[in-house]
């Protein structure tokens, strides 16, 4: 009396849900890839030949451009790398054979920012196997999203401002000035 009896719940299992659930994928070795696809493949360097040559001859410059755009677009993250400083860091890390680590760090930052899938390889492996292809892919990804790393962050801001105002140049004379003694 005064006690409420809970009715027993009957669990039904959907066979489609069973097949696609995580444990079955884990057992077969298939890991589901979560995230948005990259706009171009890792080995699509031929899509931007100027960047491909620049990266092949001087990968530190391409890294510096990417680092500047990624750091400047998130000012709350602390220190901001400029292209020359980023290039120098990548060059020094190359001398120490650790540029794979810093390259993969910025690749992960780019993936996180745009929700990209970690494919076709892990970030460290991408930069270890083919650092130039990884840098080119990151460069193309930013460029396809309207952030051309070759312009630098200030150039991107100027381009966005020009697009906002319809590429109208303001050609007005400065106000009259006078020297006072």
TrEMBL record:
TM stretches of this protein: 85-103
Region (Disordered): 1-26
Organism superkingdom: Eukaryota
Key words of the record: Membrane, Transmembrane, Transmembrane helix
Residue spans of biased composition, Polar residues class: 14-26
InterPro entries referenced in this protein's UniProt entry, alphabetically: PLAC_motif_containing
Protein name: Uncharacterized protein
Taxonomic path: Eukaryota, Viridiplantae, Streptophyta, Embryophyta, Tracheophyta
